[in-house]
Design brief:
about 375 residues, alpha/beta, FAD/NAD(P)-binding domain, Polyamine Oxidase, Chain A, domain 2, 2 domains, 7-stranded mixed beta sheet, 8 helices, 16 strands, about 25% strand, elongated
Length: about 375
Amino acid sequence: MPHHASHDVIVIGAGASGLSAAAALHVAGRDTLVLEARDRIGGRLLSTPASASQPGLDLGATWFWDGEERVRALTTRGNITTFDQHLTGDTVVQDTTGTLRFAGNLLDVPARRFHGGAQRLAFALAGALPADRLRLDTPVIAIRPHQRGGLHVHTADATLHAEHVVLAVPPPLALERIDFAEILPADLVRLARATPVWMGAAVKIVATYESAFWRRQGLAGAAVSRTGPLQEIHDMSGPDGRPAALFGFAHARMVRPGFDQAVPALLAQLFGPGAAAPDAVYVQNWSTEQWTAPSAVQRLVDYTLFGHPLYRQPAIEGRLHWASTETADEYAGHIEGALAAGERAAQGVLARTVSPYGRSSHGVPSAGR
């Protein structure tokens, strides 16, 4: 990597928002480089590896809903087939007095899921970029304005220059991991430090079984527990119930000694003895992911800050653009919000730059509209 390589745009983060922005900027002819701290792409789009016999199981984002046209368009472009979330059956609710069964699915609503897992969306976006435009294992440690314009982006082993930077990571994580040397406005710093991280304090658990036995009992796989350790449970089986799986969410504070044994015990209380011995259990604790969750993630709870107007205003003389699902002014916290935020950031860059053909550019191809 050249020590002082220069690019039109550097995108920090190869999740859905960063890859969405990078793909749009590449199509518009901008020299765009994506830097990703992890050894993989996708961010909070994370699926277990898929095979011919075992489709990927989502450990991060799972669903999309009617009206989320950016996601739908991406599935079309990426040849990603989708299927309906299973809804049929009754709901189980557990509290301190016992376990009750309620007619119908009171928890789930019509939604779609992705064959092979939601991480395929990231692969589809990355596929639009030249291979050398994406660098993994490259955390950004500092950003500084350049005296002749643009921004210096510092990594552990290089200093890169860009006219614009797209910051496609959760705002409080950016403030904790990247040294801005007090070049950001104080009100923006306060906002970014206080903004919650979608999924940041969540633990997602997926349990797989030989068959979706709960369906034969007339249960939807939907359950709520007020005693824990899981707070809500959903059916995560593939089409026609294969592979069979249940998944649940827990708050990070519920992960304590004995958690691994408490999860199947709770599932057995909700769905019967057949749930006591899963074939496999996957535990994804997002609060311990250093490139997702800042140290204060469990204390960040003001979700009204999602989509705050300040995130739509590029900082540092219009050169630093926010793009993560937390910054979206529509569908914040959804995959759709991440794509929308990336699209908005790309539009912001193009509105302030001159195209390679000498014309001022004021638009970007839409990601799905």
